[in-house]
Design brief:
Layout lengths: L1 H18 L22 E12 L2 E14 L4 E5 L2 E4 L8 E4 L2 E5 L5 E11 L2 E11 L4 E12 L2 E11 L4 E5 L3 E4 L1 H6 L2
Antiparallel strand pairs: 1-2, 2-3, 2-4, 3-6, 4-5, 5-7, 6-7, 7-8, 8-9, 9-10, 10-11, 10-12
Length: 186
């Protein structure tokens, strides 16, 4: 039921942007992996979506442009950035990528073509990331590099729990700890 409410709110938001764009120009083009033959229902530029609960903003998603395909129930994003607050902490998680999509059926967000994530002094890069909202987890795939003040971790798969900021890695895991890190403390 919650997913349907979120999907409905997003559709209403997108339709509102389409019919009442304000000063922002409406750009009618397809972004991402959909071919020119695809049936895109709504396209726009300068997109901002927010998800909130009990008066708090859970995350904000901004994109250079977006297209909504009602048949596929997908919002395709060009240059998306997600800002996610972590349980009242001052430092948010910021995730950006060249391309992305929001699946209306599941409310999941998938980013690809070079994902960059940061949280304070921690930086994480991967080829692809899937933000599963119901689990508050970001699943990472392909050439993952985590860098935190002298500690580097490489792997092929992993996930980040956004409740605890615990990173799990698997698939050819390699860890490098710089000598200076031992004197600074991790």
């Amino acid at each position: 039921m919650r997913r349907k409410a979120i999907a409905g709110a997003l559709i209403l938001f997108l339709l509102g942007l389409y019919f009442f764009p304000g000063d922002a120009p409406v750009e009618r083009r397809t972004v991402g992996p959909i071919s020119g033959a695809a049936d895109t229902d709504v396209s726009m530029s300068g997109v901002e979506m927010r998800l909130g609960q009990e008066g708090r903003t859970l995350w904000t998603l901004r994109a250079l442009s977006a297209s909504y395909d009602q048949g596929q129930q997908m919002v395709l994003l060009n240059a998306p950035t997600i800002v996610k607050s972590l349980g009242g902490r001052d430092i948010p998680v910021i995730v950006s990528a060249p391309l992305g999509e929001v699946d209306q059926a599941t409310s999941d967000i998938r980013l690809w073509s070079g994902v960059h994530m940061e949280h304070g002094p921690t930086y994480l890069n991967s080829d692809e990331a899937v933000f599963v909202q119901i689990d508050e987890t970001i699943f990472l795939h392909g050439d993952i590099l985590l860098d935190r003040q002298g500690l580097q971790l490489r792997s092929q798969r992993g996930d980040v729990d956004l409740h605890t900021w615990v990173v799990n890695a698997e698939g050819g895991v390699e860890v490098v700890i710089a000598k200076d890190s031992f004197t600074q403390g991790l």
